[in-house]
Amino acid sequence: MVNSYRIASIPADGIGPEVVDSAIEVVEKLAQTLKTFTIEFTHIPWGTAYYKETGRYVDKNVLEILQGFDAALFGSVGAPDVPDHISLWGLLLAIRGPLQLYANVRPVRIFPGTQSPLRHADEGDIDWILVRENSEGEYCGQGGRSHLGQVWEAATEVALFTYVGIERIMRFAFETAQSRPRKLLTVVTKSNAMRNGMVLWDEVAAIVAKDFPDVRWDKMLVDAMTVRMVNNPKSLDTIVGTNLHMDILSDLAAALAGSIGVAPSSNLDPTRKNPSLFEPVHGSAFDITGKGVANPVATIWSAAEMLSWLGEKAAAKVLMDSVENVCRKNILTPDLGGNASTKDVTRAVCDEIET
Ligand code: GGG
Description:
InterPro entries: ICDH/IPMDH, IsoPropMal-DH-like_dom, TTC_DH. This protein is an alpha/beta fold. The chain has two domains: 1-104 and 263-355, 3-Layer(aba) Sandwich (Isopropylmalate Dehydrogenase), CATH 3.40.718; 116-127 and 135-257, Isopropylmalate Dehydrogenase. It has eleven helices and twelve strands. Helix 1 runs parallel beside helix 11, helix 9 packs antiparallel against helix 10 (313-328) and helix 10 (313-328) crosses helix 11. The longest helix has 19 residues, at 16-34. The chain is globular, with a radius of gyration of 20 Å. Glycylglycylglycine (GGG) binds at residues 76-78, 88, 92, 247, 279-280, 282-284.
């Protein structure tokens, strides 16, 4: 008796369809080869083309539709002719919110055969898990505009933090740190300048830390954190911070590890009441859309994280070992300094799975 999974595939915009196709191909190859699980992907056409046709990025019953699946695999959102805040709020945030995907986990490491732009960092020197609070803070959606069109036009963007929201992500981050060999957590805030929400973050961190005496933890201001990531990457392991701070730091982290083209992301509901959503960190990259050179590794790694979340840890390991072997053989897309196409990398990963 093998486990069977139903996955919603939402490729959406830009290079999303190219990299999601690649991830589906390698996961199907994995299932056929290992025969330890079966998996079925159902295409959901949400995205900018759907918006232009229907006036909506997603269906009204987004929660009900996605609850029919075990997980979702997402591509990327954004189009040159739609303002970014319309597409992001219409699609990705319209999914993360109702599903309460409050933990965004973004592992980062240097793959064999690839190089960090940091002269002093080799494989193994960057091996981080970034935990991004994914439901509140600067992305809570509160705020507004007044005096439109006047010189004193004003706009506010509220950063909303709740004790419950901070406590649950902090606990998740401590548990993540505890599960890793170094048991090391860095809590990122800006509590010198932002004296309400960020101070609450510091306070909640200290409270939750008491339940994890075996985890060493420290605090960093987000500006100083950028310097530490560049100058002393080995001093970091698990990192937790707000929605906005970790959105920014995870792009920096990915670039330091070689390319945002390899960075995966899991949007988790740790209570497991709702299906979780897995996606590459990168956006729709219209500059390379349709050219066949998008790096599929971030989406393949996201699919591996999805398998692991579903309980298929052995299959996830086979998949990631295959990706590493492909990198080791220098079959790399241009963002990593190679000249392989998306299809070349996909085929190479499938071949590795078979061997
Ligand atoms: N695959 C992820 C994607 O399309 N990201 C676009 C983006 O702007 N994301 C912002 C966010 O993750 O909050």
